Amino acid sequence: xxxxxxxxxxxxxxxxxxxxxxxxxxxxxxxxxxxxxxxxxxxxxxxxxxxxxxxxxxxxxxxxxxxxxxxxxxxxxxxxxxxxxxxxxxxxxxxxxxxxxxxxxxxxxxxxxxxxxxxxxxxxxxxxxxxxxxxxxxxxxxxxxxxxxxxxxxxxxxxxxxxxxxxxxxxxxxxxxxxxxxxxxxxxxxxxxxxxxxxxxxxxxxxxxxxxxxxxxxxxxxxxxxxxxxxxxxxxxxxxxxxxxxxxxxxxxxxxxxxxxxxxxxxxxxxxxxxxxxxxxxxxxxxxxxxxxxxxxxxxxxxxxxxxxxxxxxxxxxxxxxxxxxxxxxxxxxxxxxxxxxxxxxxxxxxxxxxxxxxxxxxxxxxxxxxxxxxxxxxxxxxxxxxxxxxxxxxxxxxxxxxxxxxxxxxxxxxxxxxxxxxxxxxxxxxxxxxxxxxxxxxxxxxxxxxxxxxxxxxxxxxxxxxxxxxxxxxxxxxxxxxxxxxxxxxxxx
Amino acid sequence: xxxxxxxxxxxxxxxxxxxxxxxxxxxxxxxxxxxxxxxxxxxxxxxxxxxxxxxxxxxxxxxxxxxxxxxxxxxxxxxxxxxxxxxxxxxxxxxxxxxxxxxxxxxxxxxxxxxxxxxxxxxxxxxxxxxxxxxxxxxxxxxxxxxxxxxxxxxxxxxxxxxxxxxxxxxxxxxxxxxxxxxxxxxxxxxxxxxxxxxxxxxxxxxxxxxxxxxxxxxxxxxxxxxxxxxxxxxxxxxxxxxxxxxxxxxxxxxxxxxxxxxxxxxxxxxxxxxxxxxxxxxxxxxxxxxxxxxxxxxxxxxxxxxxxxxxxxxxxxxxxxxxxxxxxxxxxxxxxxxxxxxxxxxxxxxxxxxxxxxxxxxxxxxxxxxxxxxxxxxxxxxxxxxxxxxxxxxxxxxxxxxxxxxxxxxxxxxxxxxxxxxxxxxxxxxxxxxxxxxxxxxxxxxxxxxxxxxxx
Amino acid sequence: xxxxxxxxxxxxxxxxxxxxxxxxxxxxxxxxxxxxxxxxxxxxxxxxxxxxxxxxxxxxxxxxxxxxxxxxxxxxxxxxxxxxxxxxxxxxxxxxxxx
Amino acid sequence: xxxxxxxxxxxxxxxxxxxxxxxxxxxxxxxxxxxxxxxxxxxxxxxxxxxxxxxxxxxxxxxxxxxxxxxxxxxxxxxxxxxxxxxxxxxxxxxxxxxxxxxxxxxxxxxxxxxxxxxxxxxxxxxxxxxxxxxxxxxxxxxxxxxxxxxxxxxxxxxxxxxxxxxxxxxxxxxxxxxxxxxxxxxxxxxxxxxxxxxxxxxxxxxxxxxxxxxxxxxxxxxxxxxxxxxxxxxxxxxxxxxxxxxxxxxxxxxxxxxxxxxxxxxxxxxxxxxxxxxxxxxxxxxxxxxxxxxxxxxxxxxxxxxxxxxxxxxxxxxxxxxxxxxxxxxxxxxxxxxxxxxxxxxxxxxxxxxxxxxxxxxxxxxxxxxxxxxxxxxxxxxxxxxxxxxxxxxxxxxxxxxxxxxxxxxxxxxxxxxxxxxxxxxxxxxxxxxxxxxxxxxxxxxxxxxxxxxxxxxxxxxxxxxxxxxxxxxxxxxxxxxxxxxxxxxxxxxxxxxxxxxxxxxxxxxxxxxxxxxxxxxxxxxx
Amino acid sequence: xxxxxxxxxxxxxxxxxxxxxxxxxxxxxxxxxxxxxxxxxxxxxxxxxxxxxxxxxxxxxxxxxxxxxxxxxxxxxxxxxxxxxxxxxxxxxxxxxxxxxxxxxxxxxxxxxxxxxxx
Lengths: 494, 457, 99, 528, 119
Known about the structure:
Chain B: This is NADH-quinone oxidoreductase subunit H. The complex is a heteropentamer. Chain A is built from 20 helices and 2 strands. Chain A has helices spanning 3-20, 28-49, 80-99, 107-129, 133-142, 144-153, 159-187, 197-200, 207-224, 233-240, 243-268, 270-296, 301-320, 325-356, 367-370, 372-385, 392-407, 409-434, 450-468, 471-493, and strands at residues 59-67, 72-78. By secondary structure, chain B is mainly α. Chain B has 16 helices and 2 strands. Chains C and D meet through helix 1, helix 2 and helix 3 of C and helix 6, helix 7 and helix 10 of D.
């Protein structure tokens, strides 16, 4: 059974139905959440069918000829990393839909929004499952369109600006990658399946050709997983877009960048990766510090969370380009954990915004007494972001540092500073929001209702479970990471 | 020039003109000019004289025998007249225009053959009686006549005055319209001769003058040559009643004389061309088998034959002028475009179809060359008579319809604020004088015959 | 006289025509410049044809003449319509289109 | 002496003959059918039948073709699959064009002035409009242009190329001047287009004359054969000739610095004409340039490459930058077409053989999207003060909120814009992919890098229009109001093109296969 | 001698004659100008500042000019064929007839559309 194709097709079909069929509009929310839960169920089935002992190998492979003239195939398959990210996507989408249940929209607009969310989910699953560079690229670029509409149509004042900025950044990266993709074709074996990653792995390039190709890919991924010089779109989008969009974007989509670095940059161009690693590690460390510092100065909570993400992505990239088994494992684990924690954090900010229509830190204060559950939840989520031991981000961060230290001592030490800074901004924010005297306007704040709890708590539970028993996830991540390390280091041996 | 090779392929005769020395060329050129100028002087007298006779009056008869010196006197008078350059004119073009006209008119005769190779009296030089000839001589002739148009249009425009402008554009439109018909009439001649050299064309007529087998083309040519030279009945550009003197209105003295000269020279030119193309050129009206042919086609005789033919055509010009009324402009243009050009095309198709298809199916074309004009005439008669009949019926119907429409309408003598005649069918008001006398009371009010008027349209 | 001289002449004519199109602001003059260029090309074709002793160049000149004539018809028609709407055929004058 | 009649493979010419014959028939219809409304219907039917029949004929030739191609008339016309592919494309564009030409709103007005010869705003014009006259000559004209383009894409002889060039240009000059609304603009555009077009074709012709002088040939195969052996003493003449010929073609493609006519002509012409012209002219010109390139120019690759690179980069940069500052939709698309001319030239860089199949595909994607985009433009109208439907609303601001008024049209337009921008899952992406692949294959990757950066910048203005349509509310207080005309044909063409663009974007395999088999030029050995 | 040389001789002589005539009359005639003489002729009316219609040619004449061009082209192609029709045989005939037919189409068009009607 072509389960991966079904996983991609199901949200696409349901999403398009929602966009096109006017009769569905009245029941858009119910329809959408139903569809996403079905998707989640399918993903659970996928996980069940996945052979954990062979996590490093590609499973559920499907390869069909698509455009043989340009060597493109409809090639899908997942290893442990892809699987975990698909799980993350499938988990977050219903949560996001549920979180936005009460957004006051007219029915057609709501149908549009939910339809686009579902279509985006289809693209996300597709990207994580793609085993063909061309297919990967197509989905990578095409995904911009629903996202562009999600950002530009729904959200705050600056949303149009943010949408265009997002699109242009992504497009520049994507098109540079296109050049590399085309050039890669001529380096590879050619033929009807020229773009299959397995056909392209293990090629030997002329050094500069390899480096240029690597850069072509890396630029695109660096923009997507915002590394410092090209990160500016993320805060803009985060503050303008609707919270659900931002959650999806940061928690899942940006992982496409790091996922791409792992599965394409490192795998296809190991020599070039090693050549570029020192620079990239420097960039990563700068990201960690810059993101953290910038977060401290933010008043807008969306921007704040966005900057923390920039910081965290720096750590992930550091882990990836340290080329150690532990660091890569940690980085992949961190990708999942970060998805859970940042997602939760954005949702919490969204709940606050829903209550008072503002996300300015200054506007709040002393909420601890009024809404204890909310405050508590926020604290836990916040602590997860600053990597409190016992939560999964902590486990992954530790693994990254331990793994990276032998490879890049100074960089790792500097990056650990980022953790300290994280503690600073999270606690400062918590302090401003929830402690001190309660302003008049805040006194009538409602606490988390059942829907909101149902939305956030599962994420917290997941983080806790994974924090305590990281093996649950690491079993899936170890194999693939080992494979990547093997490729990179085997190349080094030559 | 591009026709060079084609023509050579078809016709390989020796142009003995190549042997002429430059002096002979100059002498011949001067002789041609002298001939042209005297011919014009003669033509002016000739026209006035013949017209006079046609109108039963004497014509010029004061100066010299039969008034022959009249035109010499006229020319002298023009030379000594005051030369006025109109203030509103574009000076350069205004002066250039008559020069262009006369210049173009002088050139045509360079390629007209007056006769075969002849010994120049008192010398041993043998030379054809023709200034020069080349394979595309007819194109040269057409080119010269086209340059002549510039004289007219520039003269009219540069005068900066209404009548000359109108005259010039009319004249230009007329000349180019009729030039097309003329051009089409030439095609069958070229087919017959297989060359565009005038010598070849004359030589090819040794059996028969082409006026017979190519009769329709000849008729076409004659009509269009009258149109081309702005002569009655096609003299619209200088219709005195409408445009004073057309494009020449603002010209005086020698400038006027050049236009005048050019016009008469053009008449002589086209007559010479028509003679050469259709009337055998310098060939005598004498069968080859008849005695004396040799003498009549050599020495002084060929030029005389040609001149005789030219003057015959000149007489036709004058004759037409004396007999026909001027066309209205729209009638004239319609005639050119809707009759002459289709006829010309039809004739080409008919003729070439016969000449190409008959040999293709292995029939001889000798009889067809004689039958073709007859076929053409019959076809033309069928087409035109039916068209005329059809249009007459249509007009009658339209007149009837109008009649019915206006039936019983009260006649308004001042419809639209102007005095108008009664339209057919309109009821005439009772005359104020009616009833005064018995005759008046019973008088039949005549209906104007408007049907007839409509037909003239 | 060698036909190559005609080629030089044609080149000069072509240059004059091109200059007329590029420099003169009157549509009719510019249009005449174009015609001059076409005829210069014609002259070139014929001269080269003469030099090489093949007739193709001359036949081509015929085709070019036809095309040039058609172009004259279309061009004049366009210029006249513009003139009738605006009472001017200066190429600088029409300013509906900018940017 | 009898000249032998040349051998002509008439069957191979059927598509062209059908179109040109129908055009001639159309002129006769004009002459004999007196009632304008009836004439309009007849002309429309005739044109559609002709174009469809020609399409079928092209398919028939494609199927019947054996080997690389057929020699139709010595070396002047040789019908190969490449030529058939271009003919097919041009006919498809013509079909769309004719449908748009016939598009007539409920108010009874099509895109053309009822009387082309009278001055705008004159009494005669008012009368003609009141009488409901139609300028039905547009149909024969477009057929003539189509025939000329098909010929242009087929012939192998430079002089014949010139004749075909004029055959399709002259009707276009006239068509551009015939807009029903904004006639001054239209006439002025026509004048500019004409003067520049005539200028460039004169340059082209002089180039041909020089090549003829240098080599004694005008056939492309023969020229290529001559150029294979280098002749130093004549090289200046050859280079100059080739350069001028290329300039003539680049003009028709609309590449910088020969692009001046493009914005004016696109903006001034009636939108159906713009649609047809933008798609088909470019296709025909690219076809000719491709043929010339792979038969002749590649011999001079070393001398010519820098020109192609310069022109391509200039076109992409200028087209994109100037498009960004435009405030008129048609003008914006015009500048975008200049940028696209640059992208097309990228494929030529290095003369990679795969460009021969990439180009038809690229032009198919570009042409379909262009046709569709202009079809949408015909639908967005201003309201005249008396409440009737007026001129096209082409100012960018007037497109605000289109997504709400007419989601279908807006989405179609969006798809076209995405295709122009080269976003995956639209045809434009695959087109760019194959074109760029050809360039990279020949080692021109720096050029491709410039191209992708330009397309990213270009995306900015495409997206800006999308922003207006979907994210901005229509201003309610601004006069004139904007309405959606929503005519069957215009809408139908837009939607059909949108579907085509998506299909070619998602399942391009079959089309690429066809393009691949079209990527062959017939090159029989010809003496000399 | 080249057959075109006599033409040049003719051109020189004819041109000289045309010029000499005008120059002679300029010397021979009287010169007593006045304003009325230098004004343009208006059949006795007061002369207007410029010719009717601003000295421009009526549009209708352009139509004649354009039609003329079409047919002149036709003639251009007919003449070479006429000279060599024998050797071009049936193929040439059919080609030229097709050409004529095609030329006739615009002719008919213009005829029916009133291009040859002058009011």
